[in-house]
From TrEMBL:
Residues 236-460 form the Flagellar hook-associated protein 2 C-terminal domain. The keyword Secreted applies. The gene is fliD. It comes from the Bacteria. This is Flagellar hook-associated protein 2. Pfam families: FliD_C, FliD_N. InterPro entries: FliD, FliD_C, FliD_N.
């Protein structure tokens, strides 16, 4: 049977409050542990943001280290509304003409027209619709050559309408799209290959359950229905262009990949047979400008982050979260040191030589006039960023920053990894210390409750004895009056 305890009733002592106050004293170290845990968590978050900033700087330096960035080219088309061109970095300067001979086509098919009854679609009849993928030969014969894939067999039930057949085709074929056309007097099943090019052809045939394919009854009506016959309304065809007026090039789509080395040409929706475009491939410094802008932005973002985290405000006497932190300060010093170091093998030794200089606070700014003059010397400009002299103090700026950032970020040996592991260990130790202290407090609380409960019983017993003695003395005194 459960025991109901109410310490202090017997003695009049407020044992619960006494024990609570004593336990509160024992709990004071918990507050310190909680503060430490919160500080560690905040530092983990701060280092995480710094790591992201260093990673962004690494990516930006990597683009300036890449040869592709400095080999940028631009492809232009004299008839850009009809023909577009693209070129990959490193493609040599070139000019050629493209004349459109044919646009890529998908094969389309329309079945014989089937009448509605009272405006309602009617079942067409049971059987099997077979669709064989393949390729048609040239006009005028258009001889069909089946492809290697097995024909798609569509089972048509007796109560299926054209809409049901279209739904079945769409559900089972990834090569064709089916729909139903309402032509005013009836319905037609329309098919279209999803791909373009001569190899995207197909041929239809039916097997009618009545066994007669020429009676204009049942499923065979898809092919022939009175005076109406199913037919190919457009044969699949390759796109064709003439390069420099005499060299024919074909493609299954309207895009000609690597029509010349590194250059692709696309025929747009506005292209017409006979359109002519002059394609020009020229060097383009836009990727370089974009990469330099990305680097400056990444550097400034990281520098601002470090400045905020390590600052000390003399007016408020408040420091940033990482104020005095040797790791954060070390990153700051290293970044400044790389900017101050020189590069050999280029007419430009420092970023300041091409118009990129540090401002008050450490952020970089770009002098566009000086920058534009420097980028006009592409080889020296490139070497300033990416030359590799196998010496960390004389390498290109991007090489030095990339090496520095990647060293910090190394998965097993990087300083970020070391710092993260140290903070996680501190957090784990804090958790263990908290658990041990809570266990200790629970034991102390239990001991105090037992001791004060025993004291309560003793005081209650003494009080009862005192009351008894007082009562006896009073009785004795009354008897002897």
């Amino acid at each position: 049977m459960a025991t109901i305890s109410s310490p202090g009733i017997g003695s009049g002592l407020n044992i619960k409050d006494i024990v609570s106050q004593l336990v509160a004293i024992e709990k004071q170290p918990l507050t310190q542990l909680q503060v430490r845990a919160a500080t560690v968590q905040t530092k983990i978050s701060a280092y995480g943001e710094l790591k992201a900033g260093v990673s962004a700087l690494s990516d930006a330096a990597g683009k300036l280290r890449s040869l592709t960035t400095f080999n940028g080219v631009a492809a232009t088309s004299s008839k850009a509304t009809a023909i577009s061109a693209t070129a990959i970095g490193g493609t040599g300067a070139n000019n050629f003409s493209v004349t459109v001979s044919a646009l890529a086509k998908a094969q389309t098919y329309a079945s014989a027209s089937l009448a509605k009854v009272n405006g309602e679609s009617q079942p067409i009849g049971a059987g099997t619709l077979s669709i064989q993928l393949g390729q048609y030969g040239a006009a005028p014969g258009y001889v069909f050559a089946p492809g290697s894939a097995a024909a798609l067999e569509i089972t048509v039930d007796a109560d299926d309408t054209l809409a049901d057949i279209a739904s079945k085709i769409n559900g089972e074929s990834s090569d064709l799209a089916a729909t139903v056309l309402n032509n005013g007097s009836g319905e037609q099943l329309l098919l279209r290959s999803k791909a373009t090019g001569e190899a995207a052809g197909y041929q239809l045939s039916v097997t009618d359950t009545d066994g007669n394919l020429g009676d204009s009854l049942g499923l065979s009506r898809l092919m022939t229905n009175g005076t109406s016959s199913g037919s190919i309304t457009q044969y699949a065809g390759d796109a064709k262009v003439m390069v420099n007026g005499s060299i024919e090039v074909t493609s299954a789509t309207n895009t000609f990949k690597d029509i010349v080395s590194g250059v692709s040409v696309s025929l747009l929706d506005g292209a017409l047979v006979g359109d002519v475009s002059e394609i020009a491939i020229k060097p383009d410094d836009a990727p370089i400008r974009s990469a330099v802008e990305g680097f400056v932005n990444a550097y400034n973002a990281l520098n601002s982050m470090l400045a905020e985290a390590t600052k000390y405000d003399a007016a408020t006497k408040q420091g940033g979260l990482l104020q005095g932190d040797s790791f954060a300060i070390g990153i700051q010093n290293a970044m400044r040191g790389i900017l101050q170091s020189t590069t050999t093998g280029s007419a430009f030794a420092r970023l300041s030589d091409i118009g990129i200089s540090q401002q008050l606070g450490g952020n970089l700014s770009v002098d566009s006039t000086k920058f534009n003059a420097a980028i006009a010397k592409p080889e020296d400009f490139k070497n300033l960023f990416r030359i590799d002299n196998t010496g960390t103090t004389t390498d290109g700026v991007a090489v030095k920053f990339k090496t520095f950032a990647d060293g910090l970020l190394a998965a097993s040996t990087g300083l970020f990894k070391t710092k993260e592991d140290s903070l996680k260990r501190a957090l784990d130790q804090n958790t263990k210390d908290t658990e041990r202290l809570n266990a200790k407090i629970a034991r102390i609380e239990a001991q105090l409750n037992r001791r004060y409960s025993a004291l309560d019983a003793q005081v209650a017993g003494l009080t009862a004895l005192n009351n008894y003695v007082s009562q006896q003395v009073t009785t004795w005194n009354n008897a002897n009056k």
